Amino acid sequence: MQTTQYVAEILKELNHSADLISDEEAEKLVNGILESKKVFVAGAGRSGFMAKSFAMRMMHMGIDSYVIGDTVTPNFEKDDILIIGSGSGETKSLVSMAEKAKNIGGKIATVTIFPDSTIGQFADITIKLPGSPKDQSEGDYQTIQPMGSLFEQTLLLFYDAVILRFMEKKGLDTNKMYGRHANLE
Ligand SMILES: O=C([C@H](O)CO)[C@H](O)[C@H](O)COP(=O)(O)O
């Protein structure tokens, strides 16, 4: 198959994924962000790249958003929300982070393929995305892509859709947001 045909196949998979996401669950995340003082995002590997993109757009909207692991990330407190994107819901560093955040008392949200996973059990808000985990022997979802690629792409699209929903609720537009974009790059 040619590369562009693979692009078309990936888009077909993503189109199908979009139909399987719950708006009710998504709205809980939007409201959770709205009600929180600071917003922390976390994810490992490729899921972590999507989290960084999400944090950047939240910053553009004027939200106090931070990526776990960055040097300037402050302390997590009771009024804050931690959003963990993890296909498997079992990535060890994220499990212990979720446990710690739970003990501190803030809100935990997770975007995952497996709501019953260990991270899912710590979460107050769970958004289930379709896809296959990185160890494809642990899922039966059909995808032509390796490991968790479909989940990770869906995660980025989902985060971008949450941004659009948030912009709609707050009456924000791209020009207002661009005013906050880094001007020393
Ligand atoms: O980087 C990743 C890998 O390439 C899988 O496709 C994962 O995003 C990383 O290992 C985190 O895994 P999950 O927590 O299960 O998303």
Count, helices: 7
Distinct small molecules bound, one entry per kind: the ligand O=C([C@H](O)CO)[C@H](O)[C@H](O)COP(=O)(O)O
Helix-strand pattern? HHEHEEHEHEHH
Total strands: 5
Beta-strand content estimate: 5-15%
Question: What characteristic shape results from the CA principal axes?
Answer: globular
Radius of gyration: 16 Å
Structural class: alpha/beta
- Oligomerization state of this entry? single chain
Biggest sheet statistics: 5 strands, parallel
Give structural notes.
With 185 residues, the protein is of the alpha/beta class. Helix content is 49%, strand content 12%. It has a five-stranded parallel sheet with strand order 2-1-3-4-5, sandwiched between helices. Helix 4 (92-104) links the parallel strand 3 and strand 4 (107-112). Helix 2 packs across helix 6 (149-170). It binds the ligand O=C([C@H](O)CO)[C@H](O)[C@H](O)COP(=O)(O)O.
Q: What's a quick, concise take on this entry?
A:
This protein has 185 residues and is an alpha/beta fold.
Identify the notable features of this structure and list them briefly:
alpha/beta, about 10% strand, 7 helices, about 180 residues, 5 strands
Ordered list of secondary-structure elements with their pairings:
Layout: H1 3-18, H2 23-35, E1 39-42, H3 45-60, E2 65-67, E3 81-85, H4 92-104, E4 107-112, H5 118-122, E5 125-128, H6 149-170, H7 174-178
Parallel strand pairs: 1-2, 1-3, 3-4, 4-5
Helix pairs in contact: 1-6, 2-6, 3-6
Bound molecules: the ligand O=C([C@H](O)CO)[C@H](O)[C@H](O)COP(=O)(O)O.
